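User: Second chain of the day. Same drill as before.
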Amino acid sequence: MLAYLADVTLFDGRARRARRGVLIEDDRIVWVGSHARAPRGARGAHELARGLTVTPGLIDAHVHLCFDGSADFAAEAREMPSVAAATVKAVRNAAITLRHGVTTVRDLGGRGDAAIWVGRAVEAGRLPGPRILAAGQALTITGGHGHNVAVAREVDGADEVRRAVREEIRAGASVIKLMATGGVLTPGITADFTAFTSEELRAAVEEAHAWGRAVAAHAIGPDGIVRAVEAGVDSIEHGTMLTPEGARLMKERGTYHVPTLSALLGMVEHPEEVPPYAVEKATALLDRAREALRRSVRAGVRIACGTDAGTPFNPHGSTPLEIVRMVEWGVPVLAALRAATSVAAELLRLPDVGVVRPGAVADLCVYEADPLEDVRAVLAPVTVLRGGEPVGSTL
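Assistant: Same format as last time:
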């Protein structure tokens, strides 16, 4: 079946182009060019939109589908007694995510293999949702960040780390997540605490890369960021206390920064409902996070969009709001849109998504207004296409 987007303003994942046409056959884009020179097949195709703005489907490089964004993350974990319960939540949250224009996500820690199996069901066409790359359980040191919320398994020593990486991959993990520092949502450990040793981090990275898997490092403190980058991780998640040294090293090594602004703001903006220990830590980090993002921009670090959705008051489907917040915090609009499309796709090693070009998957968002003129346009997609199929509006 042929479908056509006529005379649209197109952000193709890298640049804005006027008066374009996009021809889709089944789940792929087969032609992109000047609408005035559209191929003959476009004339008989089903017209999906005319005169609107089209972008690639959005990508969120950091979510937790097993969590709903309730005020107390740890309490929600305690109330999730099984992988089955987590799966039910993940199914619902995947559908919500897709309706907001997010066609690909990377789940960086959930209950067991719940997100892995939901991702498989989505790809098989049994469930609505975005494409899901899932880490399974994250890896943390004994007593480290995440040990209290069932999203991380505790491992110590290079050999244990290697074995854990292999076991997560055997379970179906398409990415490995390491807790390289403390975090906001774990009581009794400071956010900047440096966790894994350099030897442990290198073991994880070597093993994951040998299996063709990327490695994401939760890293807030400056020493933990540098240690993780030196070990060869592919992305720094949060990077809240990034120093000039760290930014230069990330630029030099090609390490991506996934800043997750919505995670901190969700807690800081609800101080009466979020547990006090988390509010205190998040508030203390807010200005550092703002400066870290600007530092990445100045240093030329590749920034990918990620929300950390599922953390307090950070619901799934908030990726468009994360884009808006990135711009409010100083990221140029074009860079913010790239962060949520082509750059995130590069991080996730998905060459056929995050771009609008012949041969790419027809994951697309259609908007009334142009996000490059008013970034808040991303908050209200008119139509979302997943593999060429419309999935409806968020309105």
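The mean pLDDT is 96.

User: Great, on to the next one.
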